[in-house]
């Protein structure tokens, strides 16, 4: 006969219940905290510029969260709408011509604008794929986000043997907010099926959250 399985002690059950509750509550709490922090940050920047007669706090006498964020979203959307028609485009072009005449400001403006256009462009494939490269030595692999094909001077300098080079971004764990821009041969890059969101979860969790993958699915 199979010996009876000993029941866990009260302390063990208490610990397990606490850990289960922590797994349930922690993501919800962190998400709410981040959302609330972002709303307050947006309000602190925008609310001081709202005329008093349009600010609900002057009538309700208590803090209304999200008013500044809502005003910022509406304002940015209106500016985008105006920038797509002829009159708005002319105003934007006039403002850019003034900025381009400022020695230091024009360099910052061009760089920031190029970054935002590359990231927000709908047709862009930047950071839509995840891959693996050998680093720091053969046999050891790291996760990277694929940026784009290398072009320009870097491509001319590195493609001497005719092999295409790819720009990849290698972030650290567990906070992928910084990292290294690397140029690797396409043949040395293993493209994965996982999405960038799944890759980010894998990095943030330190390898604990592995994305699901069907064995029958061939890698790209």
From TrEMBL:
Pfam families the UniProt entry points to: DUF502
Regions that span the bilayer: 21-42, 62-87
Secretion signal, residue range per the UniProt entry: none
Coiled coil stretches, renumbered: none
InterPro entries (alphabetical): COV1-like
Record keywords: Membrane, Transmembrane, Transmembrane helix
KW Protease (keyword) present: no
Name of the protein in its database record: Membrane protein
